[in-house]
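Researcher: I'd like a structural prediction for the single chain below. Treat it as a standalone chain; there are no partners to consider.
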Amino acid sequence: MKYIIEIVEIDKRPENWTSAVEWPGPAMYVCKDDTSMYHVMDYAVNYIGEKKAFMTRPVSDAELNPITEDLLLKAIAAASRAEKLK
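Model: Treating it as a single chain, here is the predicted structure.
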């Protein structure tokens, strides 16, 4: 199973990046001025690693919503044709 994890991009890493109160709030962050990724919790910050290892490609709309209206219409049409063939 695959999961989508939201990563927030901010312009600049806080000077004291080890302090959770310096960040906008709990989340996963990447900074435009830094190559690292950070996991910020209520009271702690974890350095995760190089962001390029986690951000290999953006997610597509089809991956977010694999069942589209077009796909449903095709399924209904196929079921209808199958009934007629019986």
